[in-house]
Amino acid sequence: MAMVAPGYLRPQESGPVSAEQDRAIAAACPGLTVKITTTAPIDDPLWGPAYFIGTGFATDQRLRHQASSGGVISVLLVHALETGLVDFVVQTAADPLVPTGNHTVVSTSYEDIFNAAGSRYATSAPLAGLEDWLARPGRFAFVGKPCDVSALRARAAADPRIAEKVPLMLAFFCAGIPSAAGNGRILDRLGVKREDVASFRYRGDGWPGFATATLKDGTTCRMSYADSWGQILSKEVQFRCKICPDAVGGSADIACADAWYGDDRGYPSFEEQDGRSLVMARTGIGAALLKEARAAGRLETTPLDIGEIIKMQPHQARRKRQILSRLAAMAVAGRPVPRYRGMKLWAAAARENPLDQARSFVGLVRRLIQGRA
User: Fold this and answer.
1) Domains of the chain: total
2) What pTM was computed for the model?
3) β-strand 140-144 against 168-172: which pairing, if any?
4) Of 189, 210, 267, 339, which residue is most buried, by most CB within 10 angstroms?
């Protein structure tokens, strides 16, 4: 994977690709195809499959505070390690060489999980080292973006090692991947030079926490989540993310998100509070893990009616409702259209206001023709 302007990771061919390899890539690449199959009792057009829906948080207050919301993913990883379900965890953490960037790490202890906790709004490619993780002794949990987990599920259909070696796949709701240039704009807004930054965190250390640059002299500069994401990074999201049908991690065993509290207008409030996660167990394996972690006292959860999620994640709902109109716009503009299966796109589209659906279609056709998408 190589960085290309304005700061996105893209695959580069490093050698000849056989026809068989090309077919394998096409079958697993989430840029081309996304497919979800489920036997879950709930399969909602907006929020996907579920055995359990609730809110929750880690009872470990240190971990809960370090994480981006309630620390549920982190505490589940700790539980999986300490009970022997897995021997290590493959996840994304801050790159020590590029503080605003990411790299993939192997975690084997509580402290490893703690140090990697917190959302990282930068490019990542945790599956680039898949062959290395599969060759390593032991079984592992995988944590990634919804597209990463979708790719791993798809690859498992052709590679039996994955089912054997990866008993747990976790994801988080994803609003899209911003460019590295966008990350640089946060530093510019903070008035700090890139070479002076020792570490950088986008979220966490509270909920939602602040985008915080720690400089080499020990001083810190910070920006609110509403400004860092809402004013800068959200405007830098790559186009593929805007037509993602599964930004809610439907292929994962468990997917988590911010369980924002709504304000008086019904929109999420970003005032600092104790962290709270939205938790969706999407497979029987995920539901069993949640039950074990609750019984062990590591986790507290409260069941949630699925209709409440839209109050916490309104932007995710709107994107899913408009995916079909965006795909239609791509077809009209002569662009390749990804293949999406098992995600109830027609049912989701039926929940959108027809006028908003039309605006979505016409607006994207215009941007595509003008070369702005």
Assistant:
1) 2
2) 0.96
3) parallel
4) 210
